[in-house]
Design brief:
This protein is an alpha+beta fold and 387 residues long. It is 43% helix and 19% strand. It folds into two domains: 14-104 and 313-376, no CATH class; 121-304, Transposase Inhibitor Protein From Tn5, Chain A, domain 1. The protein has helices at 14-26, 45-57, 63-72, 74-80, 88-97, 100-117, 183-186, 202-210, 282-290, 293-305, 316-341, 347-380; strands at 128-137, 146-148, 151-161, 166-174, 192-195, 214-219, 225-230, 239-247, 259-266, 269-275. Helix 8 (202-210) links the parallel strand 5 (192-195) and strand 6 (214-219).
Length: 387
């Protein structure tokens, strides 16, 4: 009897699908992609997202490498690529012109899923959002990415929940885009922005306080300080200074609204932290700023292991699609690592996931090849052949 198996039909990957499943839930009520003109789409939004998540997860470094694998690799062709495949021109058109609205929808829904699932590491500190900008090397043909003469760069501004280990918001500008104006846009009510010295601005400190924006910001050691009221400091603490102050030079750049200044020392290095959080102890302010390093780790990890800054798009729209896909991949990893291992994202767990996917696809490929061979032998067998 003929085999009840079609080796050329689209196959499922249990491991990849388990990893990808939260994004399917996040696609509820997402609007479909629209074709430019009357040409039919070669892939729908799920196909597009699936391909881009696979691109980041498997550390691809170019669109050419990705498309080659989608065509030649057994697993990628059967479980990731659209059923009829995807041409380079159609892929480029889709990435640079479609899907951003849908990516934003999925990101917001995934973020809500992660927010309800991931436990905060230091709940007593409140919702801490590390804020920073990171440059993306662009090509000279990306005319919109102004930076310097003979150089093009874009800048990604990210708000990262350092208590839960997940991205919250993102904005894209050219490489010269100022970072301070994005603080208010990257924070929601009740969240505290944790900032490095590049965000120090006495005028903005005043404005943030007027706008009820909470912040914890390192400042330069040489900044002038006018002490209004000293606060108690424990003798055995790394905190050596705690006071309400005005910052800056009088009649030049001095703050108009008093704020709190905490000084602490680690390994001989003094850190000065300006904040309007008066509900925390000096030690907690120091601890909160130490956590800011997590956003630096996130950027380094994002670039190195998810290859987010290996460009497969050249337009501003397309680059934002790629960045959103990278953030979605990270959220999927955060959810997967917590559900499977009760851990935060780590390269060890990501590598383990990649190996499991590769092992599954090789097993399926072997089974598929065996099925094809059996199917071929059955067709070639004479009708009156004896068994």
């Amino acid at each position: 009897m003929p085999l009840n198996f079609n080796p050329w039909s689209k196959q499922d990957s249990l491991i990849f699908d388990t990893f990808f499943q939260p994004s399917l839930r996040a696609m509820d009520n997402v609007s479909p992609l629209k074709s430019s003109g009357n040409r039919p789409l070669q892939m729908n939004f799920e196909d597009q997202l699936r391909i881009l998540v696979y691109y980041h997860l498997q550390e691809h470094t170019s669109a050419q490498h990705l498309l080659q694998e989608l065509e030649q690799d057994e697993f990628a062709r059967d479980a990731i690529a659209p059923e009829k495949g995807i041409k380079k021109s159609a892929f480029s058109e889709a990435i640079n012109g479609r899907g951003l609205e849908q990516m934003m929808h999925v990101f917001e829904n995934l973020r809500a899923q992660a927010d309800g699932l991931l436990p905060p590491s230091c709940p007593e500190l409140g919702c801490l959002v590390g804020i920073d900008g990171s440059l993306v090397n662009a090509t000279l043909s990306m005319y919109w990415a102004d930076y310097r003469k003979g150089s093009k760069k874009a800048k990604v501004h990210v708000g990262f929940d350092i208590n839960k280990g997940m991205p919250r918001k993102v904005f894209l500008t050219d490489g010269n885009g100022a970072e301070r104006p994005f603080v208010g846009r990257l924070l929601d009510q009740g969240q505290t922005g944790v900032l490095d010295r590049g965000y120090q601005s006495h005028q903005r400190f005043d404005q943030w306080q007027r706008d009820n924006i909470q912040f914890i910001c390192r400042i330069k050691a040489r900044t002038m300080k006018t002490v209004l009221k000293t606060l108690p400091v424990e003798s055995d603490s790394s905190v050596f200074f705690d006071a309400m102050v005005l910052l800056g030079t009088r009649n030049v750049n001095e703050t108009q609204i008093p704020l709190r200044l905490v000084g602490y020392k680690i390994a001989g290095v003094k850190y000065w932290i300006a904040t309007n959080r008066c509900d925390l102890t000096g030690e907690q302010i120091a601890a909160a700023y130490k956590l800011r390093w997590d956003i630096e780790n996130f950027f380094a990890w994002w670039k190195r292991h998810l290859k987010v800054y290996h460009l497969i798009a050249r337009s501003r729209y397309g680059l934002m699609v790629q960045i959103m896909a990278g953030l979605i991949t990270y959220l999927l990893l955060a959810i997967y690592c917590h559900k499977q291992h009760k851990e935060k994202v780590s390269i060890r767990r990501v590598r383990q996931l990649r190996i499991q996917i590769q092992n599954e696809l090789r097993t399926k490929a072997g089974f598929t090849n065996h099925a094809r061979k059996s199917e071929k032998e059955h067709k070639l067998r004479p009708v009156n052949a004896k068994t």
